Amino acid sequence: MTTYIESAVALRASSRLAGNLQQVLVDLTALHLNGKQAHWNVVGHNFRDLHLQLDEIVDAARESSDTIAERMRALDAVPDGRAKTVACTNLLPELPAGEHDTAVIVDLVTAQIRAAVVTLRGVHDDTDAEDPSTADLLHAVINQLEKQAWLLSSENRTLG
Known about the structure:
Layout: H1 4-7, H2 15-41, E1 42-43, H3 47-74, H4 83-89, E2 100-101, H5 102-130, H6 132-153
Parallel strand pairs: 1-2
Helix pairs in contact: 2-3, 2-4, 2-5, 3-6, 5-6
């Protein structure tokens, strides 16, 4: 009788899947770094609440990037999270340097989150075709980031 372990075949990511996950990784890493930059340099009305909310976004991006990098390793792909790689290859809008008012930070970081989600959604279907388990991870990250974008963008919404 053959056991599961004996019959299991290790899944290896194709170069396309590895490349897609690499793009997700650098975008999530950039989101984490840019979220921290915003956290350190936000000023104005509702500072404290936004300061804390930005840390929640940073934590979500950092944890998600770790999940993606570890999935890449499980698929025998090599993640590249070096600073130069992240800086040169992420697809997020540039975050301007310096201090920014809370309302501006809300819009800037919401745009960052939404750009990361665009990347995730852009690779999801290809990923699902090759590895549904990895697509499930992407789906969970999408849900988490879309919720963060909604919560954050609501800071600037008004009725009317």
